[in-house]
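Please describe what follows:
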Amino acid sequence: MSTQTLDKAKANLPVRGFLKIDDLIIPKGEDLVKAILDLKKEKNAVILAHYYQPAEIQDIADYLGDSLQLARAAKDTDADMIAFCGVHFMAEAAKILNPNKKVVLPDTQAGCSLADGCSGEGLRKMREQYPNALIATYINCNAETKAESDIIVTSSNAETIINALPEDRPIIFAPDKNLGRYLAKKTGRDMILWDGSCIVHEAFSMERIAKQLAENPDAKLIAHPESETPVLDLAHFIGSTSALLNYVEKDDAQKFIVATEEGILHEMKKRAPQKELLPALVFDESCNCSECFYMKRNTLEKLYLCMKYELPEILMDEELRLKALEPIEKMLELSTTIK
């Protein structure tokens, strides 16, 4: 491969989001997995992956987890390089927690509808409108939004954190209105909701899921709280990604209808191979809308290239990083009792 070819691939990164090197022969199959593991050892790297990643990426990750678990893993690692297999805001969080480590993401266009729909400027305007309110922001947001927040939450710790906030202050909750509505019901707190939602969790159809339940009377519906209220009202259990996994593993039921991103089924099948798992149905019968297009942008080939050439790299202004770090550290401090 020529230097000119590599330079061209680097120049295309801002538009393409990942390295595409036409005349580079990339290993295939088991050879590709071995090449990634060799790079990990050579560069003292750690691979972090979310449960919604493609199965083959989940299988080679050093740490597989939800947003809270991965934030902790990113904070605690002694690796020199973090290869983050998730979406952009997650890799940003790893960089916020590790300013002196190199953080790479296989594809920078692995985004998030929640993060894209909420801005730091928008939160500043809400704070002006409600000056006595505290801003609790879901971790599914970009660094600028985190920087305008008083505290960050994940679906694993949100109820604990909301309950810990001063009762005499209203709460602005952004950007997920469905999670915010669920938390307001659970905690009884006065919450002002940002009008945002996850495109995957909003795709679930209450009517089609009700039919699924009728056709599978021995099944339990489990749902992520990013789902809309009519779906949550049908659920036997509501919980974060990790909570859903634990529930399937430990509950006596043998069949589950799962209302969250389909990637989680891979780990569920590993933990409970004897149980039957059905993806919850979505409105559009012609699409596989319970898969997150953004999460699935990452591939083993892109992971190999980003580790080999250490690009795309997550970089951040230090002033912004420090502002975003404060609410994340508050979250981690209040979440010590949550596994």
Observations:
- The chain is about 45% helix and 15% strand.
- The two ends are 46 Å apart (CA to CA).
- The longest strand covers residues 45-50.
